[in-house]
Design a protein that fits this description.
about 350 residues, alpha/beta, D-Maltodextrin-Binding Protein, domain 2, 6-stranded mixed sheet, 12 helices, globular
Length: about 350
């Protein structure tokens, strides 16, 4: 059993992520997270998760956060092996392992991270889950970050200026777009972007606005080139060890499934990402020497062609897994348009 069973008399005094004392919890789950301590993932998303599971189980289940157990690409295997109970994974860190989930990363969707995350879960339920790409762990939520933009050390005011730049771009659709723009891609996990830029090993990074504050980009990448809808959207999953879940009493399992896991948690995480994106934008606007350069009308037309080419490629790639990729894409687009 991968849970810590606590008796009522010997209640834990450990501080849960939410900041409350887990005095009455019967089960304490261990969360592995790789983002910086103050990043919205750790400061807001995991605390919201803890709040939700505590509310759903009347305090019988809580969780505590541990940082630095393993690097970002290792989180899936970490949870599968039972070294921790829960984690967040970024699908783009493992190219080729999560093909179907590239659909949510496509540029051109209009809407918030909340709307995208809800649409994402619904597309998973109807289509993407058939590929069983999260086999070995229990998938408990899916979400996206906000539209990713180019953050650079020197001003970029036209899309053509991206060609030749050394840019940290994740795998997945972000990599496809970077290649189409002519950038020289550098593979660096998100926690390493600050030192990569500070050391001049890269000219820029492509990340959402929250990174302006979450990864302190206002200090090392003072310029933002903003494309409406973003260059891509990152794809994340909250995952849980299967044995951990199976070892919980059936009534607790049912409460978590009905009140937390799936769409409810996906929605709340997406909502938080919208909030931290707004904080990152405000931080940029308030920091001397920082600038946001909007894409020109001409660049919008050029990027629409690139986005269409990437979309066609990804839909064909996902369809090859046996998933009805076009139907999944159409569902995501219509769901986001309705919210």
């Amino acid at each position: 059993m991968k849970l810590t069973k606590l008796s009522t008399l010997l209640a834990s005094a450990a501080m849960a992520v939410s900041g409350t004392i887990a005095m009455a919890a019967d089960y304490t789950l261990t969360i592995s997270s790789w983002a910086p301590p103050t990043h919205g993932i750790n400061a807001m998303m995991w605390p919201k998760f803890v709040e939700m599971i505590e509310d759903a189980t009347d305090g019988q289940v809580t969780a505590e956060l541990k940082l630095g157990i393993a690097p970002p690409p290792a989180q899936m295997d970490l949870i599968q092996d039972g070294a921790a109970d829960l984690s967040i994974v970024f699908h783009g860190y493992q190219p080729g392992r999560f093909v179907g989930y590239k659909l949510i990363e496509l540029p051109g969707y209009e809407g918030s991270a909340e709307a995208a995350s809800v649409a994402y879960w619904r597309a998973h339920e109807q289509y993407l889950g058939k590929a069983d790409e999260h086999r070995g762990v229990k998938l408990i939520a899916l979400h996206t970050h906000g539209p990713a933009q180019l953050h650079s050390t020197t001003p970029v005011t036209e899309m053509s200026q991206i060609a030749g730049l050394k840019v940290r771009i994740p795998g997945g659709v972000g990599g496809d777009v970077g290649t189409a723009l002519g950038a020289t891609g550098i593979q660096v996990p998100a926690p390493k972007v600050y030192e990569t830029l500070a050391s001049k090993a890269a000219d820029g990074v492509v990340m959402p606005f929250e990174s302006r504050k979450g990864f302190k980009l206002t200090e090392v990448a003072q310029n933002v080139y903003e494309m409406p809808g973003g260059l891509y959207r990152g794809s994340f999953a909250f995952i849980m060890n299967e044995d951990t879940f199976a070892d919980l009493p059936e009534d607790i399992q049912q409460a978590l499934e009905e009140k937390v896991f799936g769409e409810p948690l996906s929605r709340e995480i997406g909502k938080i990402w919208d909030e931290i994106d707004a904080i990152g934008r405000a931080e940029t606007e308030a920091t001397a020497g920082n600038a946001i350069n909007a894409a020109t009308a001409a660049d919008l037309e050029k990027f629409a062609v690139i986005a269409a080419d990437v979309r066609e490629k990804v839909i064909a790639e996902v369809a090859a897994t046996g998933v009805d990729a076009q139907a999944a894409y159409d569902l995501i687009k219509s769901e986001m348009a309705a919210n």
